[in-house]
Amino acid sequence: MNARRPATLASLAAELGVSRTTVSNAYNRPDQLSPELRKRVLDTARRLGYPGPDPVARSLRTRKAGAVGLLLTENLSYAFRDPAALGFLEGLSLACEDAGSGLLLVPANPEREEVASVHRAGVDGFVVYSVPDDDPHLAAVMERPVPVVVCDQPSIDNLDRVGIDDAHAIKLMAEHLIELGHRKIGVLCMRLARARNDGPASTQRQENASFHVQRRRLAALAEAFREVGVDWEQVPVIERFDHTVSSGESAASQLLESTPEVTAIICTSDILALGALNAARNRGSRVPEDLTVTGFDGIVDAERAGLTTVRQPVLEKGRAAGRLLLDTGEPGRPREVRLETQLVTGSTAAPPRSIEERWFGP
Amino acid sequence: MNARRPATLASLAAELGVSRTTVSNAYNRPDQLSPELRKRVLDTARRLGYPGPDPVARSLRTRKAGAVGLLLTENLSYAFRDPAALGFLEGLSLACEDAGSGLLLVPANPEREEVASVHRAGVDGFVVYSVPDDDPHLAAVMERPVPVVVCDQPSIDNLDRVGIDDAHAIKLMAEHLIELGHRKIGVLCMRLARARNDGPASTQRQENASFHVQRRRLAALAEAFREVGVDWEQVPVIERFDHTVSSGESAASQLLESTPEVTAIICTSDILALGALNAARNRGSRVPEDLTVTGFDGIVDAERAGLTTVRQPVLEKGRAAGRLLLDTGEPGRPREVRLETQLVTGSTAAPPRSIEERWFGP
DNA sequence: ATGAAAGCGCTAACAT
DNA sequence: ATGTTAGCGCTTTCAT
Description:
Chains A, B: Keywords: DNA-binding, Transcription, Transcription regulation. 2 copies of one chain form a homodimer. The first copy, chain A, is α/β, with parallel strands linked by helices.
């Protein structure tokens, strides 16, 4: 209900026979007028159904929206299903709450080029979470004359950033597997570009990936395995556009079908790894005896599954991003927050067995 | 970066020697001016670093914010941890996305009376999710001259609503347990009022609960059990302020400690029930042999645990709330959407065993 | 303690 | 196809 469009500050002032300033002060600077007058103003306001100063008009005048915009590269609803994104959101909302700021989720359908929603967002700044280098919504955000903080990707000069050292993080994993003795590996990765693609990703595609994070993780893996003599060109890298357990499962199936000799599947996310675990089970492969599977992120479900993975502080990332954006100081910018990661040795990685062992038992 | 505060539509128009209308049209009504002129406008805009029409000024003029506000009764970050709230959010975000609308999460700390965030929210309407009757933020929302849709609670005349039939839903559960033979029951419920309280809730407290949903569920349980001769006054109802698995656990412990003769614990949420399951395990009680435990909501973790519960379509609730708010039509209001629920018979409910059986085995 | 004047930056009739 | 005129509703110096 409440569909009238009635009293304004001006009409209220007129009714009261006072100036608009006085009415404004009644709401915003109680100490600037006598308690009696203030009470009279507020009472009359109630009587006339005046809802208080219009927030939009106020924002226009004060140049403050009281909200932070969040740009994701996915459908909004996706964010509520991906545990890592969720952790980020939780952290970000914590920071917003601390600052009394609202959090505006900006719809940015990755399938469309529509950036109107970015233009329309009445916010004091944007947090950009994990979008590709060439995302048009990002471009629209950067045109807005407000501060921007990027989380994870892309990394853009001159912009505040929060993230982790992806290369370092996944290198720990690579070294762990190398130490265990794995040389025949396969990789499952998330989407590398905005256009849908499901299947093997050539090294060229890997290098051209517009998703910075994936690109760097793959590059770091390549480097680590090349150092022990693995020909990266021969390492199957399977890409999936959708980030779901079932895409992980299908990707792993595809991988094991075409390259059954792999002894380990490295996944660039826990979600994909969880799917890979399913795929292994479906094929009757035991993990880690027959096959090693590793993830990335350290989500709860991964922990539950005993996944060997890399834990990153997703909640802290969100909080740090929010703080960076909301913190008054903007002196020696751009600023960067780099958070720590941690190798989690679960029960899904073990030394490889030889082909013979795998087929004929130990 | 991007911290200049430069060109406006007017300055751009001046620079170009055209009217502001023309510049405005270049952005909002491309068909209203020649392509060449439009290109000239846009090019000059880029050159001057004009970021396009200011969204706040536009909102003021058009009386459209392009965003929906969401009011929760909890800290924002809580919403990202409660599976039911999350489902609701997902549904709501789906509806917003469809309409190209943003979703503004309004910080509304339940501990404070601060409603400024509600006043400051530049939105075209509010969705209110499960807040108590006397929530000051809700009052602030209702003063705003914008449409409001309430989900679950409270139920306020004249306001659009979406929800379920709580009494009916939990009655199904009550009848199920009654049929199994349970007469000695205990109940775990969520907070009944805004002020923190943890422990037994008297019938008076139950009846005065400012959380509508809990009140109705308890009332329906009372009615159902009274019909089979149970003295509701004697039924222990344990309340918990925090909605977490561990509060469920402690509440169940408290219940079983003080009333070990209960054969069933009915919980008004799955989260609490999951905690009750833990408590039973800690005491060495087998579920359902020694103790029946039931939940409410139908969250994924409940399903995983085989919980006997009532499933409600949380995602649909969110979507319906969003649609109700965004749907152009506002004729024969108020409107109400009542969604269906479903009894899920899991493996945590069975006929009670007598006290003797329980102590000495079958 | 209260008021007058001057916009914040934009869009929407209504001309032309 | 482009310009003129009027605000949207508010806050903020600066006076008084």
